């Protein structure tokens, strides 16, 4: 679908997200000729700068995030001609007249206001846009996370933004939903008949969803200490991935049909009680250790960190979904910083064969697993049992693998590239609806309240490991293991 002419306004246009992700993504789509020739990108900051001064900053801070293979001097010059800089103070209504003057007065023009700012500014920006006459029918607003700190603040954001923009104009972004592997999970589930009869409690033992980072919180301690792993990763990214795995087939792939099914999953998650919380939630914080052979400090020793911080850098949760399809199937969610590896993956583990006919040959069969790898390299892996060559019937695990880069030679589209295109096209499928956001907060809020009431320290774990031993015990009580623990020795 072709994109119509637009003015894309980036609040926080000089910030880290804009420089590292948004502008490189827009350059990539310009290079792919997806953007109309007249489309403009207006970057907002508080300081007074000329367009030339701002482009010099983009050259220094954003251009290095574009790969050398993708850099084309002619395209870069064309892209820079799209850029404008406008000085606006988000809290001062009068300064929005600078933006009014910079925008084109065309009722047919698509206007996108991307709020790459702290959520504390969402309400004032939207109110000032409305007072300046810019919250019109052809406008869209994009909200970056964190979308609140709890249910009350999330509802307040929805209320404040909803005063000036309708739900169909609000794009709550979760960049994990733009990843190629997540799109392929939808294709795998709903474009093939093979897995649907097996995608249920009768055949699936458990589901594991992991987002692990080798990096620590250094450089982001000010933000991270007010958020923690649960707010930063689990409430949004992990729960959205769970919804994609567990949702019922939607009637169509339209935005509301898909989001209706995701909402049903969130509302079907079994609620925690104080007793089940103690058994099914693990909170950890990394201490000093080694990552890839390099010594790294503990969280409380990071620069500018609070030496008595109770912020969790790791969280593992056992979730259950009370539906006919998933009753009794545990979903294990895990995320952490300073882990043994950087990866994001979904592991769907099927049940063991009901009876092994190979027992007399001293064979042990492992359950089949479907692994959807989101990063660092995106792909699908299916673990099966197969006979080893030679005399006798000896089995060993083998892996059927599809690497998206190898299979499809066309250039891969990064998550923010896809999501920005969908915003410009007005496609809402990959964006959270207000009731989804609130349902997710309703489920995680008892965890936050429990931690606040207990006032206990997170469990320490060494940097460079897979988190606290309690996370292994969490899944071990069900007779299971995290995938990296269950991999056979070669």
From TrEMBL:
The keyword Translocase does not apply. Residues 186-483 form the Glucose-6-phosphate dehydrogenase C-terminal domain. It catalyses: D-glucose 6-phosphate + NADP(+) = 6-phospho-D-glucono-1,5-lactone + NADPH + H(+). It comes from the Bacteria. Its EC number is 1.1.1.49. Gene3D superfamilies: Dihydrodipicolinate Reductase, domain 2, NAD(P)-binding Rossmann-like Domain. Belongs to the glucose-6-phosphate dehydrogenase family. This is Glucose-6-phosphate 1-dehydrogenase. It comes from Herbaspirillum lusitanum.
